[in-house]
Design a protein that fits this description.
Elements lengths: L1 H6 L6 H10 L6 H8 L7 H11 L3 H6 L1
Length: 65
């Protein structure tokens, strides 16, 4: 997630990503994003779907990274 977030054309911080996810109905804060990026938090299938949508990638790309 971190690699893809950092490749976005507009600079996207963990907080901004959390805000984008919240706008899509996924209630994650900056700390949750940080834990996901560091591998310390499990991601559900529903969360994976929203994260992929917000980042503009497929589920498979997230799973492969």
């Amino acid at each position: 997630v971190k690699e893809i977030r950092e490749r976005l054309p507009e600079k996207t911080s963990q907080r901004k990503l959390a805000d984008m996810l919240q706008m899509e109905g996924l209630d994650l804060d900056k700390n949750a994003v940080q834990r996901i990026e560091s591998g310390k938090r499990f991601v559900t299938d529903i969360e994976l779907k929203v994260i992929a949508k917000v980042l503009g990638v497929s589920y498979q790309e997230l799973l492969d990274n």
